[in-house]
Amino acid sequence: MQEFDLLVVGGGPGGYVAAIRAAQRGLSVGVVEKERPGGVCLNWGCIPTKAMLRSAEVYETVLHATDFGINVENVSVDYDAIRRRKSSVVKGLTDGVAGLLKSNGVTVINGHARFTGPTAVDVYATGESPLGAEGPRYAAEPAGAQPIEQVKARDVIIATGSVPVQLPLPGADLPGVITSDGAFGLEEVPKRIAIIGGSAVGAEWATLFATLGSEVSIIEMQKTLVPAEDAEIGKALGRSFTKRGIKVLTEATVSRVDQAADGLKVTVDGAKPQQIDADVVLVGVGRKPNTASLDLAKTGVATSERGFITVDDKLRTNVEHVYAIGDVTGKALLAHVASHQGVVAAETIAGEHAAIDYNVIPAATFTHPEIASVGLTEAQAKDAGHDVIASKFPFAALGRAQSYGDTEGFMKIVAGKKYGEVLGVHIIGHSASDLITEGALAMALEATLDELAETIHAHPTLGEIGMEAAMNALGLPVHVAPPKKR
Q1: Fewer CB within 10 A of the end CB, N or C, for the chain?
Q2: 199 is in an annotated binding site
Q3: pLDDT per residue over 372-402, tens digit each?
Q4: What CATH number corresponds to the domain at position 108?
Q5: What is the pLDDT of residues 47-57, one digit of tens each?
Q6: Domain FAD/NAD(P)-binding: where (predicted)?
Q7: Could you tell me the pTM of the whole model?
């Protein structure tokens, strides 16, 4: 029996951060993790997809090298090399996390945890991944297996993340129908791929495979792609995807997938019912809490109807000494939110003060063009009773965007009309994921349009777009034509 002040179940971006912070506060800490450190984000989500998307971006840049006065011949895609680079990046980061845990004195126990009480677990050895070397081990230990370790602690943090939702779809079990996890196991670029779900996951895979030469169809049941974003952003992405040759079907659903002589046939229902031929069908419609094989009932923690663990603002569950962080709480299924929740939970357990503001959470989608946002959409701001100003500024009006050769997209600021307080920032365009930090900081500091407009921004940079959008909102644009007087 191993004993700790704190046991963290799950070593993802929430769990390992919580473990490190608790250790820094002087607690003895153990982490149970059945995969490599880093969880879904480092192993099967954020990092590997971004590494592969970067390869696609480089390929696309080289294809257009003559636009920049550079002559390149015989350009081709080596998908095996793309996957090897992805794996190298992942290994470097997961090894780095393992090193950080070790250097902070955190004990890592490799295996799968099952609760035997609120603050005690049995740890079992895990078998091979059902998806091979490219897939996570979500399956529980074999029936009748004996625990390899027993662990208890004064406090426990549940940080087991989430898994892809499986649609109850006829044909979902056919060969070639995969989730986002299974996509990493593809050994070649599919000739034809149909993607069910147009949110961040589906849109990123659509970007990757379309750039690498696939014939891509993406099906989304809402009115626009990335429906969690401002409607104008979703519409702009749809137009961009269409220009890139991606078949975009919105307000449409898939009713079944059938085996065909030369692959798969996807039946799409909507305003224009149709069938789509594909070699691969990727289901990316959401995620659910990864708690099925934890014996969570033995902790006594309360969960929502969808199975997410209920927590308060300090990440405490209804059971004393039991906390939960990350995707498993359903608050916001984002790695950076999990990390911040990990800090708050660890500090609370250590007797320190920490807080999280769920109103200021930036999000990024690494499509081409990129998307990023923070705060309220225009529709949400109006629904909340705000009298709003909504202002856009195009990347095409920035000297840096022109010189870089990527002028697609815009920034949109949503602000209160009376005081000019920033209520939301929405970007579609190059480096949106980096630029959104200014919007998050503006909201965190309760900045106004005047303050953004009066802050000197370096020139020529893409970051000037925040200042320019603010000036435009104030009716004082310099680098775009003023609105016509009525």
Answers
A1: C
A2: yes
A3: 999 999 999 999 999 999 999 999 999 999 9
A4: 3.50.50.60
A5: 999 999 999 99
A6: 4-342
A7: 0.94
